[in-house]
Amino acid sequence: MNETVIADAAQAALPPAPGADRYRSLDFADTAATLPAGQSYDLLAAPESAMNWLATHDLTAPDVQLYEVCAERMRTLRGHVRALLAARVDGTAPPEESLRAVNEALTAVPTAPLLAWDGAQGLRRVQAHPTDQAVNHALATIAADAADLLTGPDADLLAACGSAPCDRFLVRTHGRRHWCSTRCGDRARAARAYARRTRSPE
User: Fold this and answer.
1) What is the full DSSP assignment across 178-191?
2) Using CA atoms, how far apart are residues 56 and 63, in angstroms rounded to an integer?
3) How much is the pTM?
4) Domains of the chain in sequence order
């Protein structure tokens, strides 16, 4: 199927899926999605939109300049995070290359505040975010968040959106809901109603 990437991805994007408010890695995985009619969007498609996503999620300062090579690194990690989420949802073994990629991001930089000294304030903890490592810190934070999601109490609540062709992930919040948004839920209910009507004898 040929997909049309929507030009203004931010406007086309679905609202955050359930669980995205607690797990930035879930929202990160859902920055690309397939929509009806063969359309899709990608919030990391360009350095500017990738930078906006990072700044919106407090993962870097808005004045840090992002280059295409960094946006590509974000998209690559997103693919690996999605592969790990899909494996968890399906109950299958995760791809080795995705485990390795997330572990490499986890250990690339320290994510804990470091111990620092200055004459005026003495010893204190500071979060090191040098401009040249801003993306490394952001990816390490996302990787740590993904590891927490995949191994924590919400791992059993992970689900894929049940309204084809949507391919977003969510954390179920109540009942058996498997839809990432009201829009997808409405579409799934409409499809079921249509299927019932077409099966009914005249």
Assistant:
1) --SSHHHHHHHHHH
2) 12
3) 0.82
4) 4-199 (1.10.3300.10)
